[in-house]
Specification:
The protein has 308 residues and is α+β, with helices and mostly antiparallel strands. It has 3 domains: 102 residues, Elongation Factor Tu (Ef-tu), domain 3; 59 residues, Beta Barrel (OB fold (Dihydrolipoamide Acetyltransferase, E2P)), CATH 2.40.50.100; 78 residues, Helix Hairpins (Orthogonal Bundle). It contains 3 helices and 15 strands. It has a 7-stranded antiparallel sheet, with no helix packed on it. Helix 2 packs antiparallel against helix 3. The radius of gyration is 39 Å and the shape is elongated. The termini are far apart.
Length: 308
């Protein structure tokens, strides 16, 4: 009798657990609110696309023409530089020693040239006073000796000048004005001159930021160069930035910026439209994603443009 009561209690408890599980499972899953609201389109009819900020002339990958150990770095990330400003320096101690030897050879060649030059001047003066005092062969030999000495001096100067140029090449300078975007080397590291390696520094002019917007191929025909456009940085829907049209790349390319959503087509092709805006004090950085809205004509019932 006691065992039957226990079985009844266990059955009732099991039924209650099953009932609670069924009720809990039948609830609609709660949808989490997005952490940041999406930007609201500023136009009644528009074309939307995502874009990535970049520099107008492209980033400049800085390398070194001469491999060696980095001795000094003159800039930091975020610094603005002008054309010709030093960026970093390669260790030049070995080259400096060779340059000193070359400069000593120049001094030696210059001293060695003085004797045949003075002798030639003396013989020329004697020949002018009395042509019969010295032979023509003696004067010719003196001229040859002076020419040889001048050639030796010129060769020594050329060697010193070559080493001076090599020494100047150890100071890597900015090819154009811009901002230092990356510094990928440190003092004491070996800087390779191979083009296959990672750039030692990256420069770009971010005074005016360019935004490359991907437009779905289905909406490409609605884009107008003279249409107003605005951009919103991801995470800040309250910051609306007016855009200036730059150009359209007239070749559609496969979409590379995928969100990972199951409804997104990976074979989609996009039209790339490039806009620009003054960066100023805006909290916008190169390589940042932004949402862009371009005012576009409404689509009529027949699938073509409405009135312009």
């Amino acid at each position: 009798m006691k065992a039957i009561r226990i079985l009844v209690v266990v059955a009732i408890v099991g039924a209650l657990i099953a009932l609670v599980s069924v009720l809990h499972g039948s609830r609609s899953p709660s949808v989490a609110a997005p952490p940041v609201a999406s930007p609201r389109a500023p136009f009644a009819s528009y074309v939307a696309g995502s874009g990535i900020t970049e520099t107008g002339r492209g980033n400049v990958a800085i390398g070194t023409p001469v491999a060696g150990v980095v001795r000094e770095i003159d800039v930091r990330v975020g610094d603005r530089v002008g054309a010709g400003d030093p960026l970093f320096r390669i260790d030049d101690r070995d080259l400096q020693a060779r340059l000193q030897v070359a400069q000593a050879n120049v001094a030696q060649a210059r001293a060695a040239m003085e004797k045949p030059t003075h002798r030639l001047g003396y013989l020329d003066q004697l020949q002018r006073l009395d042509p019969g005092v010295i032979s023509r062969e003696m004067v010719t030999d003196a001229r040859d000796d002076a020419a040889t000495a001048r050639t030796a001096l010129a060769s020594a100067k050329a060697m010193a000048a070559q080493l001076q140029v090599e020494n100047e090449r150890l100071v890597v300078r900015a090819p154009s004005s811009g901002r230092v975007l990356q510094v990928n080397t440190r003092v004491g590291e070996f800087a390779d001159s191979s083009a296959a390696t990672k750039p030692l520094m990256l420069l770009g002019d971010d005074t005016r930021v360019y935004l490359r917007v991907d437009i779905d191929e289905n909406d490409a025909w609605r884009v107008r160069p003279d249409a107003p456009a605005r951009a919103y940085p991801r995470g800040d829907p309250g910051l609306s930035i007016p855009l200036r049209f730059e150009y359209i790349e007239p070749f559609l390319v496969p979409k590379t910026s995928l969100t990972g959503q199951s409804t997104e087509r990976s074979d989609l092709r996009v039209l790339q439209v490039v806009y620009s805006f003054e960066r100023g004090r805006l909290p916008v950085y190169l390589g940042q994603q932004m949402d862009a809205f371009i005012q576009a004509p409404e689509v009529g019932a027949d699938g073509r443009n409405g009135p312009h």
